[in-house]
Amino acid sequence: MTESVLDYMTRLGRAAREASRVIGRASTAQKNRALQAAADALDAARAELTAANEQDLANGRANGLEPALLDRLALTPARIDGMITGLRQVASLPDPVGAIRDMSYRPSGIQVGKMRVPLGVIGIIYESRPNVTIDAASLCLKSGNATILRGGSEAIHSNRAIATCIQRGLAEAGLPAAVVQVVETTDREAVGALISMPEFVDVIVPRGGRGLIERISRDARVPVIKHLDGICHIYVDQHADLDKAWRVAFNAKTYRYGICGAMETLLVDAGVADAFLPEMARRFQDKGVELRGCERTRAIIAANPASEDDWHTEYLDAILSIRVVDGLDQAIEHINHYGSHHTDSIITEHQGQARRFMAEVDSASVMLNTPTCFADGFEYGLGAEIGISTDKLHARGPVGLEGLTCEKYVVIGDGQLRGQESC
Protein backbone atom coordinates (compact mmCIF):
# COMPACT_ATOMS: atom_id res chain seq x y z
CA MET A 1 0.00 0.00 0.00
CA THR A 2 1.35 3.45 -0.94
CA GLU A 3 2.12 5.68 2.06
CA SER A 4 -0.03 8.83 2.22
CA VAL A 5 1.60 12.26 2.49
CA LEU A 6 0.18 12.69 6.00
CA ASP A 7 1.58 9.32 7.12
CA TYR A 8 4.94 10.18 5.54
CA MET A 9 5.13 13.55 7.31
CA THR A 10 4.03 12.00 10.59
CA ARG A 11 6.87 9.50 10.24
CA LEU A 12 9.34 12.33 9.64
CA GLY A 13 7.96 14.26 12.58
CA ARG A 14 8.20 11.32 14.97
CA ALA A 15 11.77 10.59 13.87
CA ALA A 16 12.71 14.26 14.26
CA ARG A 17 11.32 14.38 17.79
CA GLU A 18 13.37 11.33 18.76
CA ALA A 19 16.48 12.75 17.07
CA SER A 20 16.02 16.10 18.83
CA ARG A 21 16.68 14.42 22.16
CA VAL A 22 19.97 13.04 20.84
CA ILE A 23 21.22 16.24 19.23
CA GLY A 24 20.02 18.26 22.22
CA ARG A 25 22.52 16.48 24.47
CA ALA A 26 25.33 16.13 21.91
CA SER A 27 28.66 17.70 22.77
CA THR A 28 29.96 20.76 20.98
CA ALA A 29 32.82 18.66 19.59
CA GLN A 30 30.41 16.11 18.13
CA LYS A 31 28.27 18.78 16.47
CA ASN A 32 31.34 20.52 15.06
CA ARG A 33 32.65 17.22 13.71
CA ALA A 34 29.37 16.73 11.81
CA LEU A 35 29.57 20.26 10.36
CA GLN A 36 33.20 19.91 9.25
CA ALA A 37 32.53 16.48 7.73
CA ALA A 38 29.51 17.87 5.84
CA ALA A 39 31.73 20.68 4.50
CA ASP A 40 34.27 18.11 3.30
CA ALA A 41 31.46 16.11 1.67
CA LEU A 42 30.19 19.21 -0.17
CA ASP A 43 33.68 20.00 -1.40
CA ALA A 44 34.10 16.45 -2.71
CA ALA A 45 30.67 16.43 -4.38
CA ARG A 46 30.94 19.62 -6.46
CA ALA A 47 30.33 17.77 -9.73
CA GLU A 48 27.26 16.00 -8.36
CA LEU A 49 25.88 19.24 -6.91
CA THR A 50 26.37 21.09 -10.19
CA ALA A 51 24.74 18.32 -12.22
CA ALA A 52 21.72 18.20 -9.89
CA ASN A 53 21.40 21.98 -9.99
CA GLU A 54 21.64 22.05 -13.79
CA GLN A 55 18.69 19.66 -13.88
CA ASP A 56 16.67 22.04 -11.68
CA LEU A 57 17.70 25.07 -13.74
CA ALA A 58 16.71 23.33 -16.99
CA ASN A 59 13.32 22.44 -15.53
CA GLY A 60 12.93 26.00 -14.28
CA ARG A 61 13.65 27.52 -17.68
CA ALA A 62 11.27 25.06 -19.31
CA ASN A 63 8.55 26.04 -16.82
CA GLY A 64 9.06 29.78 -17.44
CA LEU A 65 10.68 30.61 -14.09
CA GLU A 66 11.46 34.33 -13.87
CA PRO A 67 15.13 35.45 -14.09
CA ALA A 68 15.20 36.57 -10.44
CA LEU A 69 14.03 33.13 -9.32
CA LEU A 70 16.50 31.36 -11.63
CA ASP A 71 19.23 33.49 -10.03
CA ARG A 72 18.12 32.37 -6.57
CA LEU A 73 18.08 28.75 -7.75
CA ALA A 74 21.56 28.69 -9.27
CA LEU A 75 24.38 26.93 -7.40
CA THR A 76 27.40 28.68 -8.85
CA PRO A 77 30.93 27.65 -7.80
CA ALA A 78 31.05 30.77 -5.63
CA ARG A 79 27.82 29.79 -3.88
CA ILE A 80 29.09 26.28 -3.25
CA ASP A 81 32.21 27.89 -1.79
CA GLY A 82 29.90 30.03 0.35
CA MET A 83 28.03 26.98 1.65
CA ILE A 84 31.29 25.29 2.61
CA THR A 85 32.56 28.45 4.28
CA GLY A 86 29.26 28.82 6.10
CA LEU A 87 29.48 25.30 7.54
CA ARG A 88 33.02 25.86 8.74
CA GLN A 89 32.15 29.25 10.20
CA VAL A 90 29.17 27.86 12.12
CA ALA A 91 31.47 25.12 13.45
CA SER A 92 33.83 27.84 14.74
CA LEU A 93 31.09 29.80 16.52
CA PRO A 94 30.52 29.49 20.27
CA ASP A 95 27.91 26.89 21.16
CA PRO A 96 24.99 28.65 22.88
CA VAL A 97 23.51 25.46 24.32
CA GLY A 98 23.98 25.06 28.06
CA ALA A 99 25.25 28.59 28.66
CA ILE A 100 24.08 29.88 32.04
CA ARG A 101 23.76 33.57 32.82
CA ASP A 102 22.62 35.96 35.54
CA MET A 103 23.03 33.53 38.43
CA SER A 104 22.27 35.42 41.63
CA TYR A 105 21.50 34.59 45.26
CA ARG A 106 18.04 35.30 46.61
CA PRO A 107 17.32 36.15 50.26
CA SER A 108 16.20 32.54 50.81
CA GLY A 109 19.70 31.32 49.88
CA ILE A 110 18.73 29.79 46.54
CA GLN A 111 20.52 30.77 43.32
CA VAL A 112 18.42 31.69 40.27
CA GLY A 113 19.66 32.06 36.69
CA LYS A 114 18.89 31.18 33.10
CA MET A 115 20.18 28.38 30.86
CA ARG A 116 20.07 28.48 27.05
CA VAL A 117 18.48 25.35 25.54
CA PRO A 118 17.41 24.16 22.04
CA LEU A 119 13.89 24.80 20.78
CA GLY A 120 13.55 21.11 19.81
CA VAL A 121 12.30 20.44 16.25
CA ILE A 122 12.30 23.23 13.66
CA GLY A 123 10.42 23.03 10.38
CA ILE A 124 11.86 25.13 7.54
CA ILE A 125 9.72 25.85 4.47
CA TYR A 126 11.50 27.68 1.66
CA GLU A 127 11.53 28.34 -2.07
CA SER A 128 14.18 28.45 -4.80
CA ARG A 129 17.45 28.89 -2.92
CA PRO A 130 19.09 25.49 -2.35
CA ASN A 131 21.82 27.07 -0.19
CA VAL A 132 19.10 27.57 2.45
CA THR A 133 19.30 23.80 2.98
CA ILE A 134 22.86 24.19 4.25
CA ASP A 135 22.21 27.38 6.22
CA ALA A 136 19.22 25.86 7.99
CA ALA A 137 20.80 22.47 8.61
CA SER A 138 24.04 23.92 10.01
CA LEU A 139 22.39 26.39 12.36
CA CYS A 140 19.80 23.90 13.63
CA LEU A 141 22.48 21.26 14.18
CA LYS A 142 24.87 23.57 16.04
CA SER A 143 22.07 24.94 18.23
CA GLY A 144 21.03 21.41 19.20
CA ASN A 145 17.81 21.20 17.19
CA ALA A 146 16.49 18.59 14.80
CA THR A 147 15.06 20.01 11.58
CA ILE A 148 12.67 19.05 8.80
CA LEU A 149 13.46 20.91 5.57
CA ARG A 150 10.80 21.38 2.91
CA GLY A 151 12.33 23.15 -0.07
CA GLY A 152 10.57 24.26 -3.21
CA SER A 153 9.79 21.72 -5.93
CA GLU A 154 11.94 23.75 -8.35
CA ALA A 155 15.07 22.88 -6.30
CA ILE A 156 14.27 19.26 -5.43
CA HIS A 157 17.31 17.71 -7.17
CA SER A 158 19.73 20.26 -5.71
CA ASN A 159 18.28 19.81 -2.22
CA ARG A 160 18.56 16.03 -2.42
CA ALA A 161 22.22 16.29 -3.46
CA ILE A 162 22.96 18.67 -0.61
CA ALA A 163 21.07 16.45 1.86
CA THR A 164 23.28 13.53 0.89
CA CYS A 165 26.34 15.54 1.94
CA ILE A 166 24.72 16.50 5.24
CA GLN A 167 23.88 12.87 5.94
CA ARG A 168 27.51 11.94 5.39
CA GLY A 169 28.53 14.54 7.95
CA LEU A 170 26.03 13.28 10.53
CA ALA A 171 27.16 9.69 10.03
CA GLU A 172 30.81 10.70 10.44
CA ALA A 173 29.95 12.25 13.83
CA GLY A 174 27.81 9.33 14.99
CA LEU A 175 24.58 11.34 14.98
CA PRO A 176 21.23 10.00 13.75
CA ALA A 177 20.22 10.79 10.18
CA ALA A 178 16.88 12.17 11.41
CA VAL A 179 18.66 15.20 12.92
CA VAL A 180 18.34 16.74 9.42
CA GLN A 181 15.58 15.45 7.14
CA VAL A 182 14.77 16.84 3.69
CA VAL A 183 11.17 16.23 2.62
CA GLU A 184 11.37 14.09 -0.51
CA THR A 185 7.87 14.70 -1.83
CA THR A 186 6.95 17.84 -3.78
CA ASP A 187 3.27 17.40 -2.90
CA ARG A 188 1.94 20.67 -1.42
CA GLU A 189 0.01 18.65 1.17
CA ALA A 190 3.35 18.11 2.92
CA VAL A 191 3.44 21.77 3.92
CA GLY A 192 -0.03 21.60 5.44
CA ALA A 193 0.99 18.56 7.44
CA LEU A 194 4.27 20.06 8.64
CA ILE A 195 2.64 23.22 10.03
CA SER A 196 -0.06 21.21 11.80
CA MET A 197 2.03 18.88 13.97
CA PRO A 198 2.66 20.66 17.30
CA GLU A 199 3.30 17.28 18.90
CA PHE A 200 6.38 16.87 16.69
CA VAL A 201 7.37 20.40 15.56
CA ASP A 202 8.15 23.30 17.92
CA VAL A 203 8.56 26.20 15.48
CA ILE A 204 8.16 26.89 11.75
CA VAL A 205 10.41 29.22 9.75
CA PRO A 206 9.01 30.07 6.29
CA ARG A 207 11.37 31.60 3.70
CA GLY A 208 9.81 32.56 0.41
CA GLY A 209 7.27 34.79 -1.28
CA ARG A 210 4.58 36.75 0.48
CA GLY A 211 1.87 34.27 -0.56
CA LEU A 212 3.69 31.35 1.05
CA ILE A 213 4.39 33.23 4.28
CA GLU A 214 0.84 34.57 4.58
CA ARG A 215 -0.50 31.05 4.13
CA ILE A 216 1.85 29.64 6.77
CA SER A 217 1.04 32.43 9.22
CA ARG A 218 -2.70 31.92 8.71
CA ASP A 219 -2.85 28.14 8.87
CA ALA A 220 -0.02 27.07 11.17
CA ARG A 221 -0.78 25.42 14.49
CA VAL A 222 2.90 25.81 15.37
CA PRO A 223 4.63 29.13 16.30
CA VAL A 224 6.11 30.92 13.25
CA ILE A 225 9.27 33.06 12.89
CA LYS A 226 8.81 35.15 9.73
CA HIS A 227 9.01 38.29 7.66
CA LEU A 228 6.58 39.07 4.85
CA ASP A 229 8.41 41.65 2.74
CA GLY A 230 11.78 43.31 2.39
CA ILE A 231 10.76 46.87 1.49
CA CYS A 232 14.10 48.40 2.44
CA HIS A 233 14.93 52.11 2.30
CA ILE A 234 17.98 54.32 2.16
CA TYR A 235 17.58 57.94 3.24
CA VAL A 236 20.17 60.40 1.94
CA ASP A 237 20.27 63.14 4.57
CA GLN A 238 21.15 66.77 3.87
CA HIS A 239 24.40 66.19 5.80
CA ALA A 240 25.43 63.20 3.65
CA ASP A 241 28.79 62.79 1.94
CA LEU A 242 27.40 62.55 -1.60
CA ASP A 243 30.21 60.42 -2.99
CA LYS A 244 29.60 57.93 -0.18
CA ALA A 245 25.85 58.14 -0.76
CA TRP A 246 26.17 57.37 -4.49
CA ARG A 247 28.32 54.31 -3.80
CA VAL A 248 26.21 52.98 -0.91
CA ALA A 249 22.86 53.45 -2.65
CA PHE A 250 24.12 51.87 -5.88
CA ASN A 251 25.44 48.83 -4.02
CA ALA A 252 22.26 48.51 -1.95
CA LYS A 253 20.16 48.16 -5.11
CA THR A 254 22.43 46.39 -7.58
CA TYR A 255 24.42 43.92 -5.42
CA ARG A 256 21.61 41.42 -6.05
CA TYR A 257 18.09 42.39 -7.02
CA GLY A 258 16.44 39.23 -5.71
CA ILE A 259 17.42 39.39 -2.03
CA CYS A 260 15.19 40.68 0.75
CA GLY A 261 17.85 43.22 1.80
CA ALA A 262 17.91 45.00 -1.58
CA MET A 263 16.94 48.68 -1.45
CA GLU A 264 13.51 49.20 -2.99
CA THR A 265 12.92 52.89 -2.17
CA LEU A 266 15.44 55.73 -2.12
CA LEU A 267 14.53 58.79 -0.05
CA VAL A 268 16.47 62.00 -0.70
CA ASP A 269 16.45 65.17 1.40
CA ALA A 270 15.23 68.15 -0.61
CA GLY A 271 18.34 70.08 0.41
CA VAL A 272 20.66 67.80 -1.58
CA ALA A 273 18.29 66.42 -4.23
CA ASP A 274 19.51 68.72 -7.04
CA ALA A 275 23.14 67.80 -6.37
CA PHE A 276 22.58 64.11 -5.66
CA LEU A 277 19.93 62.80 -8.04
CA PRO A 278 21.37 63.45 -11.53
CA GLU A 279 24.56 61.46 -10.92
CA MET A 280 22.64 58.77 -9.01
CA ALA A 281 20.19 58.43 -11.89
CA ARG A 282 23.00 58.16 -14.43
CA ARG A 283 24.59 55.26 -12.51
CA PHE A 284 21.32 53.39 -12.15
CA GLN A 285 20.30 53.96 -15.77
CA ASP A 286 23.70 52.74 -16.99
CA LYS A 287 23.00 49.55 -15.02
CA GLY A 288 19.53 49.20 -16.57
CA VAL A 289 17.54 50.02 -13.42
CA GLU A 290 14.07 51.45 -14.08
CA LEU A 291 13.43 54.55 -11.96
CA ARG A 292 9.99 55.52 -10.66
CA GLY A 293 9.81 58.88 -8.93
CA CYS A 294 7.55 61.31 -7.15
CA GLU A 295 6.76 64.63 -8.85
CA ARG A 296 9.67 66.40 -7.16
CA THR A 297 12.03 63.64 -8.29
CA ARG A 298 10.76 63.84 -11.88
CA ALA A 299 11.37 67.59 -11.90
CA ILE A 300 15.09 66.81 -11.47
CA ILE A 301 15.67 63.54 -13.38
CA ALA A 302 13.94 61.41 -16.01
CA ALA A 303 11.82 58.80 -14.25
CA ASN A 304 8.46 57.10 -14.64
CA PRO A 305 5.71 58.32 -12.30
CA ALA A 306 5.63 56.47 -8.97
CA SER A 307 2.18 55.36 -7.82
CA GLU A 308 0.98 54.79 -4.27
CA ASP A 309 1.45 51.07 -4.86
CA ASP A 310 5.15 51.57 -5.63
CA TRP A 311 5.89 52.68 -2.07
CA HIS A 312 4.33 49.41 -0.85
CA THR A 313 6.16 47.16 -3.35
CA GLU A 314 9.11 44.81 -2.90
CA TYR A 315 10.28 44.63 -6.51
CA LEU A 316 13.04 42.00 -6.24
CA ASP A 317 13.94 43.35 -9.67
CA ALA A 318 15.85 46.16 -11.42
CA ILE A 319 13.23 48.74 -10.41
CA LEU A 320 13.65 51.52 -7.85
CA SER A 321 11.20 54.07 -6.47
CA ILE A 322 12.55 57.49 -5.44
CA ARG A 323 10.98 60.19 -3.28
CA VAL A 324 12.26 63.64 -2.33
CA VAL A 325 11.39 64.41 1.31
CA ASP A 326 11.53 67.47 3.54
CA GLY A 327 13.94 66.35 6.21
CA LEU A 328 14.41 63.54 8.67
CA ASP A 329 10.91 63.60 10.17
CA GLN A 330 9.26 62.99 6.81
CA ALA A 331 11.79 60.26 5.95
CA ILE A 332 11.11 58.43 9.22
CA GLU A 333 7.36 58.84 8.75
CA HIS A 334 7.59 57.39 5.22
CA ILE A 335 9.67 54.40 6.33
CA ASN A 336 7.49 53.54 9.32
CA HIS A 337 4.33 53.85 7.19
CA TYR A 338 5.38 52.11 3.96
CA GLY A 339 8.26 49.92 5.10
CA SER A 340 8.14 46.28 6.13
CA HIS A 341 10.21 46.69 9.32
CA HIS A 342 13.08 44.78 7.72
CA THR A 343 16.17 46.96 7.08
CA ASP A 344 16.60 50.70 6.59
CA SER A 345 19.68 52.91 6.37
CA ILE A 346 20.59 56.59 6.67
CA ILE A 347 23.50 58.22 4.84
CA THR A 348 24.72 61.16 6.92
CA GLU A 349 27.75 62.65 8.62
CA HIS A 350 25.55 64.23 11.33
CA GLN A 351 25.66 62.22 14.56
CA GLY A 352 22.39 63.63 15.89
CA GLN A 353 20.50 62.79 12.73
CA ALA A 354 21.94 59.29 12.73
CA ARG A 355 20.96 58.68 16.36
CA ARG A 356 17.41 59.84 15.79
CA PHE A 357 17.04 57.68 12.69
CA MET A 358 18.36 54.58 14.43
CA ALA A 359 16.17 55.13 17.49
CA GLU A 360 12.93 56.04 15.72
CA VAL A 361 12.85 53.79 12.63
CA ASP A 362 10.87 50.69 13.64
CA SER A 363 12.83 48.04 11.77
CA ALA A 364 14.68 44.85 12.65
CA SER A 365 17.95 46.35 11.37
CA VAL A 366 18.79 50.06 11.18
CA MET A 367 22.03 51.15 9.54
CA LEU A 368 24.31 54.17 9.19
CA ASN A 369 26.28 54.74 5.96
CA THR A 370 25.81 51.07 5.07
CA PRO A 371 24.03 49.36 2.14
CA THR A 372 20.89 47.51 3.22
CA CYS A 373 22.15 44.38 1.44
CA PHE A 374 24.42 43.83 4.47
CA ALA A 375 21.32 42.56 6.31
CA ASP A 376 22.49 38.97 6.28
CA GLY A 377 23.40 36.49 8.98
CA PHE A 378 26.76 35.71 7.39
CA GLU A 379 27.67 39.41 7.30
CA TYR A 380 26.50 39.85 10.91
CA GLY A 381 28.90 37.17 12.08
CA LEU A 382 26.19 34.58 12.72
CA GLY A 383 27.86 32.10 10.35
CA ALA A 384 24.63 31.92 8.39
CA GLU A 385 21.00 32.71 9.04
CA ILE A 386 17.88 30.65 9.08
CA GLY A 387 15.82 33.67 8.09
CA ILE A 388 15.17 37.28 9.00
CA SER A 389 12.44 38.00 11.51
CA THR A 390 10.42 41.20 11.54
CA ASP A 391 8.42 39.92 14.51
CA LYS A 392 9.10 41.38 17.94
CA LEU A 393 8.69 38.26 20.07
CA HIS A 394 11.49 35.72 20.57
CA ALA A 395 13.74 36.75 17.65
CA ARG A 396 14.17 39.88 15.52
CA GLY A 397 16.46 40.48 12.56
CA PRO A 398 18.72 37.75 11.12
CA VAL A 399 18.09 34.57 13.12
CA GLY A 400 21.28 32.71 13.93
CA LEU A 401 22.25 30.25 16.65
CA GLU A 402 20.90 32.21 19.61
CA GLY A 403 17.59 32.81 17.84
CA LEU A 404 17.14 29.03 17.54
CA THR A 405 17.39 28.56 21.29
CA CYS A 406 15.36 29.77 24.24
CA GLU A 407 16.02 30.04 27.95
CA LYS A 408 14.76 28.19 30.97
CA TYR A 409 15.23 29.12 34.60
CA VAL A 410 17.68 27.10 36.67
CA VAL A 411 17.42 27.17 40.44
CA ILE A 412 20.16 25.82 42.72
CA GLY A 413 19.62 25.25 46.40
CA ASP A 414 21.09 23.28 49.30
CA GLY A 415 17.98 21.99 51.02
CA GLN A 416 16.37 25.36 51.73
CA LEU A 417 12.66 25.23 52.62
CA ARG A 418 10.14 27.90 51.83
CA GLY A 419 8.59 29.41 54.93
CA GLN A 420 5.08 28.39 56.00
CA GLU A 421 3.82 31.94 55.72
CA SER A 422 4.70 32.01 51.99
CA CYS A 423 2.60 28.96 51.07
Describe the protein's architecture and organization.
Helices cover 42% and strands 19% of the residues. With 423 residues, it is of the alpha/beta class. The strands form four sheets. The protein has a seven-stranded parallel β-sheet, with helices on both faces. It has a four-stranded parallel β-sheet with strand order 5-4-3-6, with helices on both faces. A three-stranded antiparallel β-sheet has the order 1-2-16, with no helix packed on it. Helix 3 (46-62) packs antiparallel against helix 7, helix 5 (77-92) runs parallel beside helix 6 (131-142) and helix 6 (131-142) packs parallel to helix 7. The protein is globular, with a radius of gyration of 24 Å. The chain starts with a helix and ends in an 11-residue tail after the last strand. 47% of the residues are buried. The mean pLDDT is 94.
At the third CATH level, what is the topology name of the largest domain?
Aldehyde Dehydrogenase, Chain A, domain 1
Q: Note the gap between the termini.
A: 59 Å
CATH class of the largest domain: Alpha Beta
Low-confidence stretches: none
Compute the CA-based radius of gyration. Answer: 24 Å
- CATH homology superfamily of the largest domain: Aldehyde Dehydrogenase, Chain A, domain 1
> Would you count the extended β strands for me?
16
Helix vs. strand class: alpha/beta
Query: What's the rounded overall pLDDT mean?
Result: 94
CATH arch. level architecture of the largest domain: 3-Layer(aba) Sandwich
Q: Give the percentage of residues in beta strands.
A: 15-25%
Shape: globular
Strand order of the largest sheet: 10-9-11-8-7-12-13
Helix content: 40-55%
Q: Let me know the largest β-sheet.
A: 7 strands, parallel
Count of separate structural domains? 2
How many helices? The count is: 15
